[in-house]
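TL;DR need structure tokens for one chain.
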Amino acid sequence: MAAATPVDEKYERIVLEPSPDIEKEIEEAKELLDLALCSMPNEDDEKYESEGEEDYETDLKNIAEKSKKLLPEGFPFSAHVPEDESVLEKQIFKNYTGAV
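>> reply
TL;DR here they are.
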């Protein structure tokens, strides 16, 4: 016989408010992750004005290929890694060392 399942148990949700230091660290982490995973070349850059749209598309394709190689297989999101890969080695949180 199958085990009985509990009937609509109520759980209390505890929400912890971050301290101002943690709040600042969270904002810095968001900015770093945005830089590390969402860097796209600026289409209005002088480099592309003189060379044309074809070079911009080529750069986008190169960034996508490079990102695919650097990110783990099966990464669930599309991401664009910046040309300066050193940003990927930066520590995201000061006091947290687990997986992000």
